[in-house]
Amino acid sequence: MADERAQARAQIRGVKQAAEADLLAKKNVIGVDIADKETDGKNTGQLSIVVFVEEKQANSKLSAADRVPKEIDGVPTDVQQMKVVLQGPAMEAVTQLTPEVDTTVYATLHGGISMGPLRSVHLAPPDVPTEGDYIFAGTLGAMVRDRSNGATMALTNFHVACVNNTWSVGDRMVQPSLLDGGSSANQFGSLTRATLSDDVDGAVVTIDSGKATSATVQDIGDVAGHTAATVGTAVRKRGRTTELTYGSIVSTDFTVSIDYGSDVGNRTLHHQVRIQTDTSKSARFSDHGDSGSVVMDDNRNVVGLLFAGSDDGTWTFANPIQSVLDELNVDLMVAPVVTRPIIACLNTRLAVCNLTRTTTCVLTRAPGCNLTRTVVCTVTRPTTCLVTRPSACLLSRTTCTLTRSGCNIPVPGPGPVEGGQYDDGHGYGSTDEVPEEFWAGYLAALEEIDELDQAEQD
Description:
CATH superfamily of the largest domain: Trypsin-like serine proteases
Number of strands: 31
Mean pLDDT: 81
InterPro entries: Peptidase_S1_PA, Peptidase_S1_PA_chymotrypsin
Protein name: Serine protease
Distance between the termini: 68 Å
CATH architecture of the largest domain: Beta Barrel
Radius of gyration: 28 Å
Strand content: 35-45%
CATH class of the largest domain: Mainly Beta
Oligomer: single chain
CATH topology of the largest domain: Thrombin, subunit H
C-alpha cells in the first residue's frame, strides 16, 4: 500500500509542478501540495493536487480566471483553507522589552536555543502596528562547519539572523536574544552568509574563537547526521518558544508563497517539507521564535530547517536539509562515535571478554571486543587486588589502588553489603551499576600509564 501511494505521488508530482505557477497566480492562493482530497471535512484517501487558499470562497464569487479546476490532466484537485506565517523571529519594540521564553545563557553553544541579532531594526506599518525600533528572537538550529575553511558555524534562518535586507556580513549575534534578556556581553559570532532562494531560508554565523560548541540539540541529544525527509516519518524539534515538540511528515512537495515584509516582499519556496503536529504530544509543532530550529527524526538525523507554519499550529514547514547545506556551503557537525568495548562486554556479557588482572597487569584487548589497539601496561598493586572477568563478563573485585609514581587510580570494588547491595565506597551499588564514564576514564588512565612507560623507555 505504501509503495502504491509513493508511485501515485510520483505520477502526480510532474502535473503539480507544471501547474503550480498558474495556480499560485489565482486570487487568495498561497500554497500547492500533493495530499489526500477532503470532502465535507473528511479525508477521502484519494491523492490529489491540493490548493491552499487564505479564505475559501464560493465559485460564484470568483472570476473564471481565479477558479481552481476540478481536475488537472486527469488528477483531481482540492481546495483547503490555511493561513501561513513565518515562525519567527519573535519581535518586540525596544521600548516594550520584557524577557520571554528560554532566557538561559548556555556556556556551550548547541542547537535548539534562543539567539538573535545584536542590532535593532527600524520598522513601520504595515509590517508592524507602530513605527519604531524592534528587536528579534529566533532559534539556533545546529552547529555546522564551513566547507571552505572548516570554521565552526551556527545554522539558522535568513529571517532570524538577517531579519530583512538591511543586514550586512559581520552583523553580531547574541545568545540568548535581546528579546530574551541577552546583551552585548552575550555575543557569540558574526553573520557570514545567508540565502533566501526558491528552496532555502537560511543563514550561518561564524562562532567566535574560544567559544565552546557541541553537536547536540537541547532536549533531543547528539546530532547523528542528516537524511532526506520521507512521508510518514515521525519527527521532533526543539525551538526557543515551544521547546520540544512532536509531529510527522505529510509531504515533501509543498510549495508556499510567503510575505517576508515590505523590504523583502513575497517569496515562493518549492519542494518544502510539510509537518503535521502530533496533538497527542504537543499543542502545536512550532510558533513565532521557533524559526531556525532543525527538524529531526527518531534516529536524531536532521531532515529539515524550520521556517514557517500555519497560524493555527496545525502545520509547520521546513526547508529540505540537503538544499540548506549545499546553498550555505556547510556540513552538519555530528557527535563523535565513541566505542567502549569494555562497556559492550558488560552489556552483552560475551565469554570472549575474559580478563584477569594480577600483580603485574597486562591488559590485552581481544578481537571479539571490537578493539582497535592493544595496550600493555605494568601496574604495581597490592596482591589482594585481583580483578577477574569470568565468562559471563561480570566483574568481581576488591577495593584497590593502581600505583605508579604517586598516581593513585581508584578502582570500584565490592565493600560491605548494605540492604542486599554492595557499597564500594564510590556510591555504586553493584558492578553492573558502575557508570560508563568511569570505565572510559579507567581505560584512559591505563593508557596514560603505558604512554609514561614508553616515554621513559625512549
